[in-house]
Design brief:
The chain crosses the membrane at residues 12-30. Keywords: Membrane, Transmembrane, Transmembrane helix. It holds the Pfam family DUF2061. There is one protein chain. By secondary structure, the protein is mostly helical. Helix content is 83%, strand content 0%. The model has no long low-confidence stretch (mean pLDDT 86).
């Protein structure tokens, strides 16, 4: 199966919208400051889009083919990268390493669930795939 760069870019954008909203809400609740939530969410837009795009390209080249395990492994690897980024940004923006840790740990749960669902929806989508791939692709 081949995939176009357009698919990965659109997938990156849709995930970033979901992820940013989750980060803003969690950061606001944990820090108690809506402005801190917005700052952390805004900072993540750039860092996460770059990291997600690179993650997506690496996984596309992966040999992992079983879709259920592939989705689970992608979820775990992305969550690790994303959590480290969130904790660092939240610490730098809030000035409190504990806020960074709390936001990071909360996101492990919410983001893994959202990411898994996002992956399953994109797996079922033919958007951005070559015509020959649409005809041979099996969807769970």
């Amino acid at each position: 199966m081949t995939s176009t760069q357009k698919r990965h870019i659109v997938k990156t954008i849709t995930w970033r919208i979901i992820g940013t909203l989750d980060t803003i809400i969690l950061s606001w609740v944990i820090s108690g400051n809506p402005l801190t939530g917005l700052k952390i969410g805004a900072a993540e837009v750039i860092s996460k889009m770059i990291l997600y795009y690179l993650h997506e390209r690496l996984w596309f080249k992966s040999e992992a083919s079983d879709s259920k395990w592939r989705h689970i492994l992608k979820t775990i690897s992305w969550r690790f990268v994303g959590t480290m980024d969130t904790m660092l940004l939240a610490w730098l923006i809030s000035g409190d390493p504990m806020i960074g840790l709390q936001i990071g740990f909360a996101e492990v749960i919410t983001k893994m669930l959202f990411y898994y669902l996002h992956e399953k929806l994109w797996y079922k989508s033919n958007y951005g795939l070559e015509e020959t791939d649409r005809n041979t692709r099996t969807i769970e």
